[in-house]
Amino acid sequence: MKKFRIESGVFDIFPKLHIGVLTFQGIDNEGSGREDVLKNAYNIFCERIKDTGAAHPNIMDYKDAMKMIKRKKGCSASIEAMAKRAEKGGDMYSINPIVDLYNSVSLKSVITFGGEDLDKISGDMVLGFAKGDEEFIPLGENENSPPREGELIYKDDMGAVVRSWLWREADRTKLTNETTNALIYMELVNENRVEEFYIALNEAYQLVLDELGGKGSTAVLTKDSPECFI
């Protein structure tokens, strides 16, 4: 069976890191996205950060965490990018049902989320450090842009899945309307938000099952429990 695991060196940087792992089998991700759910969450997010923008304390947690890792110059966490879009009056666009659903929870909770087609993950899904030769074709592109040696990435046996940890996902493993088995993961860097983290994890889990059917499971990875089956 495949595993989701965190290399021990990651905890040298983030000893209190929590990664929420949600797996789903047999979902129906066909058809249009959940634009109404997404837009409602985006409105909540915009209201929440209206006085601070990207300087909101919960967003700064992730911005500060990104400064602690080796990463692509100029890249930022996905939640910070959403905040900057909101500051400019930009919209959130529907992608497909499961992506819209986890993005909606990410926006409401101000916690980072990512998602992959589980069937497109080759071997284990690993949060660890790049050798520098991993293949990485960014989402929506077709040219290889491998990570730097020592860059913190999500990876599998075929290459990088996400560069610079909280930044950009690969096209190879993206969630599509054809996805039936999915992996969603979420990152907590502020140990004082553990309760909020679990609320968001449970909300995302139940939302996907209610909207898309199938079955699923959840796990939380920490320094004391750094891997789970997916």
Descriptive overview:
With 230 residues, the chain is α+β, with helices and mostly antiparallel strands. The chain has one domain: 3-Layer(bba) Sandwich (Phenylalanyl-tRNA Synthetase, Chain B, domain 3), CATH 3.50.40.10. The protein contains six helices and ten strands; from the N terminus they run βαβααααββββββαββ. The chain has helices at 8-13, 35-48, 57-66, 78-87, 97-109, 194-212; strands at 3-6, 18-25, 112-117, 125-129, 152-156, 159-163, 168-169, 182-188, 215-221, 227-229. It has a six-stranded mixed beta sheet with strand order 7-6-5-4-1-10. β5 and β6 form a beta hairpin. α2 (35-48) packs parallel to α5 (97-109) and α5 packs antiparallel against α6 (194-212). It starts with a strand and ends with a strand. The model has no long low-confidence stretch (mean pLDDT 97).
| Helix residue percentage | 25-40%
CATH class descriptor name? Alpha Beta
Distance between the termini: 7 Å
Oligomeric grouping of the chains:
single chain
Strand content: 15-25%
Number of helical elements:
6
CATH structural fold name: Phenylalanyl-tRNA Synthetase, Chain B, domain 3
Structural class: alpha+beta
Q: Any idea what the CATH superfamily is called?
A: Phenylalanyl-trna Synthetase, Chain B, domain 3
CATH architecture: 3-Layer(bba) Sandwich
- Looking at the structure, what is the overall shape? globular
Described by strand count, sense and barrel closure, the largest sheet is: 6 strands, mixed
Radius of gyration: 16 Å
